[in-house]
Design brief:
The structure is a homodimer.
Chain A: H1 2-17, H2 23-58, H3 60-78, H4 82-117, H5 122-147, H6 156-163, H7 174-189, H8 197-217, H9 225-244, H10 247-258, E1 261-263, H11 267-287, H12 313-343, H13 345-353, H14 357-370, H15 385-392, H16 423-441, H17 451-472, H18 488-504, H19 509-517, H20 523-540, H21 544-552, H22 572-575, E2 582-584, H23 589-598, E3 603-607, E4 615-620, H24 621-631, H25 634-653, H26 660-682, H27 693-698, H28 700-704, H29 718-725, H30 729-735, H31 745-756, E5 767-768, E6 773-775, H32 780-790, E7 794-799, E8 802-808, H33 809-817, H34 819-823, H35 832-860, H36 865-874
Parallel strand pairs in A: 2-3, 6-7
Antiparallel strand pairs in A: 3-4, 4-5, 7-8
Helix pairs in contact in A: 1-2, 2-3, 4-5, 4-7, 4-8, 4-9, 4-11, 5-7, 5-14, 6-21, 7-8, 8-9, 9-10, 9-11, 10-11, 10-19, 12-16, 12-17, 12-18, 12-20, 12-21, 15-17, 16-17, 17-18, 18-19, 18-20, 23-24, 24-29, 25-26, 32-33, 35-36
Chain lengths: ~900, ~900
């Protein structure tokens, strides 16, 4: 019982805090946790005494039991700690990552085995080569489609949106988890050029969400929005970390990709969880005898003493710039394909009907082209993604060294050698083909990312440049003394970091490649190339994730780009919605009803009067709905009936000297009176409006359920209205069974009409007295900063206390994306803000102030009204 | 002239925006920049035509000149770009870093040479060994003391405070730069265990500040707070980056050490500048023939194929935990020494008199102990910091390998070998001695950091553990197949990262060691050790920088620690200052005068009336001061004299029928009249307040300056209005020289007294209509978040629009540090917030609302007052 009421108190608090910064919730949660912790020892004392009783009875066996109980208690008390959560998350994700990798490897081996076993017949070989991925991808697409369509795609754009504070439904459920893991395994097992990183960010977040739900079953843990978001941010780091065994790169990449403002105090969480996860992930490989000890995933063995020459730097810079253009092209191509598919209505319609056809066709096309005896021989089609990457990062040089020496292609590197064509041609073909294939493959509706394919293409491009350099300078560039031949593998590392950095608009891919290769010797070339690639790509295209956010139309607030100066001239007054839904302090229930039925905002502004428009606070929609439902509740009506009956009796006994209208009037007044009396008798210390707690005591869950929207109707459907609101008829029937509900429908309607005309009593209503306010001349830039910093959903625009508009995320997004500037918004000329900032705005401000001043004067000195009126006229 | 007025306009804008979020300033700056850019082409056209004229005169030579002019113009137009600034900053810092390193190396060589040359006489040797550092340190201390005492110490605490938005005077001047660079060079040249990192963060920030000042001379660049802070954040990254040639670690370390919330959009700046700086720093080494190519600063050569065994991980974890304790101890010891010196009044007094004595004594003590033929032989005293680190990170094992094999100590490693004592003893002595020496040395008032000494101690500790492990497992731990001997150098890397991470409370030291050593193979051990060390150290002590912030009492807002649950129960109402300085809309100049003379706040609250206390906005102190000074200005007095003279004349000509008091009264009224007449005669179409446009017409560029509020002229204050606008005294002096200032002092005093009794006219005053507001029940946690996020200095506490208090950084800091909880603040019991949140708080809110409601009712419907009063009684 106590728990229930506490929970209620917490939820009540949360309701109260709604519309303020989410940070607040964390505080309450911590308090709650502190309270739980405090109550913990108390409980344990009683249990201890109980266990002591047990001891007397049963001796040694009981001792064990006590020990178990204590251990259990200790575990439960610790279970709420962040670090336990993070360890569990890391462990779980490492296991998931390892299992997925293992399954993918088996799938790929199976394909290879089938392909290898059928080498007698090329056609059968082709069939096997093609059918296998088609089946896998089709299954993946179908499975995901049926179980959880939210699992489709990368997941990073969605996580970015969720971390922004937007609630995306069904994105963090168990179903999605299953669909994502199985779908991803099948998709990657097919050998298509798809990645694992993005989905793993999503899977890790799913894990975190599910884990915190699971742990809340144990008690001791608290659930709240702020903590969840912190944990999700850590989970994103874990996702990248356990995917590449790159803890540092994972943390940085996840910060760059998902956050706008980053709280440094959450830094350790990501590092802790990602390190643990990466550690377990690599330990699993050691235990499985894949590796002798913990090393990097794609270990390179470049020489340490002279990694590269200073004079090679221009080549690295070229890789960076070219990768920048390439990255932008990739994002553009990817978007183009999606948009093309959407625009072509006939294709679209057809594909909508046969949803699995598109994946199958794309897979067929790609696998046909990579068929090793066919075109695939020219582009190392035999190699899986991992194998290509390993060969590309090889520290030996493929091109001819000196005159006689030729590199003997052993192992997988053989695939790059073709008897007829040069290795350069193979590389170029690989890059070109893989480029469009990856852009195409990532549009398939299966769980998949684009990071790894892009990474491989980048490595191939780097390798191409490196091999060219090696061919050009066979003895290296370094002039004096030793010969240091050029290492094309180093170029591949640089290219991989640069292209993936350009596509995702991140710098931390540099760190990821160091962690992936286990060598940091190329740090400066990598950093230079990544920065150049970013500079180029960011000026041409949005990042791949932002592009997907736009395509999917997710509710995310885009970043203000560099140098969008025109944005700085837009003010809040240009973009705000002037037609604000508000309620006044002296409104009646009918107004409330009208406002509730006409709008969909979660909170409503409360102003002093419709004339003054002084903003007093904001009220949650649910609060108002409960106010309204209380006013029209059955219990109040029964109360009324009882009163009427009493009045009837009175009238029968005493001669009435008033007419019926007057009597009814008085009756309703008495009703009001009596209710407050009854309430005070029920709970004398509480104010009048706490009545909803009464039924809540019987069924705690009902109260917490947000009462449904009154879908609507206008004035005459008040019965329907009433029925909607009074959602617990049984409970009230029990209470009020002494009074007979003998009112006819017409009478009820009449009574409700009367109730609606009463003035609203806000005293029982939770009002947020400080909703976020902006002034009309706040710039778009500042508004954007405040919205991103505080994770706001909407803000009221006031002018010296007067509510004049409201800005929500939607308006802001439109303004930033520029879609509004064309249509509706008045874009100021660049100099306007300087020209009128001193005059018009201050004039309005001053005017407002004067009005207030005058009003104030007129209130305090009613005789002085004339000058203020003349003032007003003069304006 | 035009530039001046523009600057004035910008400054005016900035003044106007003061008290809002600093982001706003950035916007204005960008607008300003856009404006400047726009005006650029115009200017260039005229210059082009001028150069074309030149062409006709002079032919070919002029062509060159045009070309030069164009290039110059292009450069100037680009000079405002961020990336140019960052490149210059990186270049400059790399040069500074390299030159400082070079000088330090020469200093140390000189000492070595002196010490080596005198090997015939031990006493002379000792004198040379000791005198040299004493002289250098004393010079450094004296020089810094005289030139700029702000240059003393690390600089990171100060930068942390400055980046928080607090302006520290004199910390970013050229004097400080010179003092810091020269002082640091001398201090490090002495061979004391001091570091370079902290000072370099400060030097880089100084560079950035000076550079942006310098570049603003060229024009095209804009100066503003928001941009400066972004640039300072980048500069901190550059400081670390060019100090260790560690761009990534530099960026991360500077973020961890200086920021609370980090804007991801600024990420690239740090990376860009730090990479460039590190690149140039290493290129300089290549050009100086120190290195063959760009490599890491302390390159290690650990084996790549099997860096460490899985079973070695417990040893790494032990290093981490021990380093955590060690780090906390170091911070504690450092603070203890400072506090001891401060508390001992006799010592303190003596040292204050002889400021250079303390540095000299400390240096004498430390250098005596490290004297190689003396005690120094047991602790490798001969080695400089750099040499020790190089030997400690060596990949060979010092302890006995197997039975017969002994490592031959060559080069600097010889210093670790002592014929009598074991290498373990040497290491232990080194660690213990250096530990307290470093803690002591960092208290010397010279520019110095503690990172590097701590790093070296950590490396030594790691080496000790590594050597022990190597002695314990001579054949390595790995069971099957190959023998992989243990690499103690890897342990040294782990130890260095862990201890420096523990002292600074950062995780990014891990990245720094990878970049410093050029090897990332030990990533998992390093990460595990660093995280463990952080966990231990953070639970015991603040970071070294926070400790210094506390010692120096810098105005920094401390972080809310983990698990300080009692903090969550403090509300704003518990810590706010209830006695707010405010001014009312209808106050007179005397009130203004009183408020201004009694308080020191930079902004003052403006409320409706002292009764209602409705917060209308905040006004800057300077604005009010100018209001007051205008009211009492000489020109207004002369105006008054002229008027009086005119009235006198009138009285002489016309027979007066009123007494003198009345006449004076009327005279002042006539003054008002005549002024307004004069104004309207001058510009009949314009409202009264636009007079400043008159001088503006002479200087066209002034028009852009935001003209003061023209304001609907107010009832009683038109005099003030007029005078406010005529703010150019020289112009008026010309105008008013016809009047003789014949008032006596007594008359002036009388006149001023009268002026002070007039009501203030705020219409010409810039009012910030939306100062930051909190509600009384906002928790400390939330307040802290908002203050850190928005960089606030103070916030008003309101309750339904009524001003009830103010919270500034000071109160917040006190509350967080807990110093107030003991004395004055009522700390709520843990459950209080739950108990009363549902009742009392809502009650107060409701009461407030009711009051407002009633007030509102009484205003609109005076007849309805009775029921509302009864309502109030019923509560």
């Amino acid at each position: 019982m106590a728990d229930g009421s506490d929970q209620r108190a917490l939820q009540y608090e949360q309701t109260l805090m709604y519309g303020r910064y989410t940070q607040e919730l964390g505080v309450y949660a911590k308090e709650e946790a502190a309270r739980l912790r405090e109550s913990g020892p108390r409980r344990s004392v009683s249990e201890q005494s109980r266990s002591l009783d047990l001891l007397e009875y049963k001796g040694r066996c009981a001792k064990c039991r006590i020990c178990t109980v204590r251990c259990q208690k200790f575990l439960i008390s610790r279970v709420g700690e962040d670090w336990i959560f993070l360890i569990l998350l890391g462990l779980l994700m490492a296991l998931v990552s390892w299992v997925v990798d293992f399954c993918i490897a088996i799938c790929l081996q199976a394909q290879n085995w089938m392909y290898g076993g059928l080498d007698s017949n090329v056609f059968l070989q082709y069939l096997a080569w093609v059918t296998y991925p088609v089946v896998l991808i089709t299954f993946s697409a179908g499975f995901t489609q049926i179980l959880a369509p939210q699992a489709v795609g990368s997941g990073i754009p969605e996580m970015k949106t969720i971390l922004r504070g937007v609630v995306l439904k069904e994105y963090l459920t168990f179903k999605t988890f299953v669909a994502k893991v199985i779908g991803l395994t099948c998709a990657l097992g097919s050998g298509m050029p798809l990645g694992k990183e993005g989905p793993f960010v999503h899977i890790a977040s799913l894990c975190a969400a599910l884990l915190s739900k699971f742990m809340s079953l144990f008690g001791g843990i608290y659930e709240n929005e702020s903590r969840n978001i912190e944990m999700l941010a850590a989970a994103c780091a874990v996702g990248v970390g356990c995917c590449f065994a790159a803890p540092i790169g994972g943390v940085l990449f996840s910060i760059e990709v998902t956050s706008t403002f980053f709280a440094v105090r959450n830094y350790w969480r990501g590092f802790f969880a990602a390190t643990f996860s990466a550690f377990i992930f690599r330990v699993l490989a050691v235990w499985n005898r894949d590796e002798e000890t913990i090393t990097a995933l794609f270990k390179t063995r470049f020489r340490l003493d002279f990694p590269f020459d200073l004079q090679e730097l221009p080549a690295f810079a070229v890789i960076g710039i070219a990768s920048g253009f390439g990255g932008a092209l990739f994002v553009y191509l990817n978007r183009l394909i999606v948009q093309f598919m959407r625009k072509q209505k006939t294709i679209n319609k057809f594909l909508m009907k046969k949803r699995l056809l598109y994946p199958a066709l794309v897979t067929l096309l790609i696998s046909t082209l990579t068929f090793p005896p066919g075109f695939g021989q020219f582009m190392a089609g035999k190699l899986t993604q991992k194998e290509s990457l390993v060969t590309l990062l090889d520290n030996r040089t493929w091109a001819k060294q000196g005159i006689a020496e030729e590199f003997d292609y052993i192992g997988h590197a053989q695939a790059w050698k073709h008897p007829q064509v040069n290795v350069f041609v193979t590389l170029v073909l690989f890059i070109v083909m893989k480029f469009w294939m990856s852009a195409l493959a990532t549009t398939i509706p299966v769980p998949c990312g684009a990071f790894m394919p892009v990474f491989v293409i980048g490595a191939a491009f780097g390798r191409l440049v490196g091999e060219s350099m090696a061919a050009w300078f066979p003895d290296g560039i370094h002039a004096d003394g030793f010969i240091y031949p050029i290492v094309p593998g180093g170029y591949a590392v640089v290219g991989a970091a640069a292209l993936s950095g350009a596509v995702t608009h991140t710098v931390s891919t540099a760190v990821i490649v160091f962690e992936l290769t286990g060598q940091i010797s190329h740090i400066l070339p990598v950093m230079i190339a990544v920065i150049l690639a970013n500079a180029v790509a960011q000026s041409l295209q949005p990042s791949l994730y932002d592009s997907i956010i736009r395509i999917k139309k997710l509710p995310y607030l885009p970043e203000l780009g560099w140098g969008h100066h025109e944005k700085y001239n837009i003010r809040v007054e240009d973009i705000m919605v002037r037609d604000v839904r508000y309620i006044t302090l002296n409104c009646c229930y009918r107004d409330l009803h009208n406002v509730l039925t006409s709008g969909h905002l979660k909170t409503l502004a409360l102003v002093e009067t419709a004339e003054s428009m002084i903003l007093l606070g904001s009220i949650e929609r649910a609060q108002l709905q409960s106010l309204l439902s209380q006013q029209l509740s059955r219990s109040r009506r029964l109360e009324y009936i009882r009163e009427r009956a009493a009045a009837e009796k009175k009238r029968l006994s005493v001669v009435s000297n008033s007419d019926s209208d007057d009597g009814r009037q008085r009756a309703s007044q008495e009703v009001r009176f009596q209710i407050s009396t009854e309430e005070s008798s029920f709970s004398p210390t509480r104010p009048a409006g706490q009545k909803p707690l009464k039924p809540a005591l019987k069924r705690p869950s009902v109260v917490e359920r947000p009462t449904e929207l009154p879908t609507s109707p206008h004035d005459h459907s008040s019965i329907a209205l009433k029925n909607l609101f009074c959602s617990s008829p049984d409970a009230e029937a029990l209470e009020d069974d002494d009074v007979e509900d003998d009112m006819t429908l017409r009478e009820i309607a009449e009574w409700e009409e009367k109730q609606l005309d009463e003035q609203v009593d806000f005293s029982t209503c939770k009002i947020d007295p400080a909703p976020f306010q902006l002034v009309e001349r706040t710039s778009l830039h500042k508004t954007h900063t405040i919205f991103s910093l505080l994770g706001l959903d909407h803000a009221y625009v006031t002018s010296i206390g007067r509510l004049i508009g409201v800005v929500s995320l939607k308006e802001l997004r439109k303004a930033i994306e520029g879609s509004v500037t064309v249509k509706g918004v008045k874009v100021r000329p660049p100099l306007a803000s300087f020209r009128d900032s001193g005059t018009s705005s201050s004039e309005t401000e001053a005017t407002e102030l004067h009005k207030l001043w005058d009003r104030h004067k007129s209130v305090s000195l009613p005789g002085d009204r004339t000058p203020s009126e003349s003032d007003e006229k003069s304006q």
